[in-house]
Amino acid sequence: MSAGLPHLADPPAVWVRYDREVRAEGGAVAPGGLGGALCAASRADRRAALRQAAALPRDELARVLPLVAVRCADWVKPVRARARRLLRDALRGPLPAGALAATAAAVLAVEKRREGEAAHALLAEAFSDARVREVLLDAPDPVTRRFAHRAALDGGLLPAERAAWTAAADPDRLVRGMCLAAVADVPDPDPAHLSVLLTSKWPETRAAAVAALTDAEPYLADRSGTVRAAAREAVRASGGHPADLCRAQCADAARRPYAPVGLAECAERTDEDLPLLRELTTHPVARVRASAVAGLRTLDPKGWQRVLPLLDDPSAAVVHEVTRSLSEHAYSLPGDELLARIAPERPYPQRAAALRLLSLGYSSHRMLGLMRMLEDPHPRLRARAALAATRRAYIAWPTPPEVAVEVLELLDRHHDVLRAWDRSHLREVLLRSLDPAKSAGAGVPLTDR
Q1: Which of 124, 273, 275, 413 is the most exposed place for a label (fewest CB within 10 A)?
Q2: Could you say which of 158, 173, 208 is where a domain stops?
């Protein structure tokens, strides 16, 4: 059933759906009166509604103008011809900004229909008006902003300063890309425009600006890997050595917390870089420690034994980076070390990291850890443990008796977590471990990995 007439602030898909739902109801006029009539199943009713809309004052017409835009792509020629005349006249006069933006969005929503090109041409014609252009450039609908910026850039109607701010701040990636190409991808970009781009939160925007800088050294320690890569290329292009600069930044890591990972990403590494990063894992600033762990993942990918104790770091960012490093060696991690970190008194980040690592193997200690986590005080960790136990409901044989007894107890308390077949399989393997005589000559389901 169709609801009332959509609001002008609604996305264009809401207007298109309203049109479809009203017509599916057989043409009954929905709440909104004229709006429902514009979507009626009868062509005569739609033409009559368009005549009625043409006689409305402009502020009342604005309320249903997005539906008029939809009717411009109507399958009945007289209906769409009348709708196009009405839309042309409306776009030539003053309209509220909200109605203009909603109408443009509706036009673009039906542009791909067989008869949708004419309304698009009317919108492109109206775009030459400065007021229309201003409204569409700031429209909430991203498709509308893409149309407006593409048309403004093609026609040379978008000032470079505005293009720079749009490239730095617009939430739509395609809009940012169009404006970024107009500002940064030119022979001699304006330094003022590059300064605007460098304030962006989007890595690709900052990277494009850094690539055009003559002094990219400060951005070798940017928080984004994309920006750091652009800075390294810019430094090399100017004859510098990124690794030397990163080492100097590591000496002041409190101000440049991402310098350690930037050093690890440089190709010109030396034997002194590995001890330097290991030393920085004890830095008082958490971001520096996390960056050093990320750098060690590149420089020393097999040195997980040195990284494992950092799971006890009080910073969640450091624990996250340690978990990423250890995930590649999950099968080699000692189960006792992970079991010790799921105790209820441990901080949440440590328990979450241990749970993630426990879920990456099939050993008896890992299954014990997953079953213990079903009684964790945090509901999110309990849910993750239940999912991991369901996916990895296997246990190695033989299982140590003390582990088998505890898993059986936990299995009885949480019998609803696993499927019946999984419970039966686990119970059989655990009972064999407790009574080896029963397993004489029996096949071994899995080895302890």
Answers
A1: 275
A2: 158
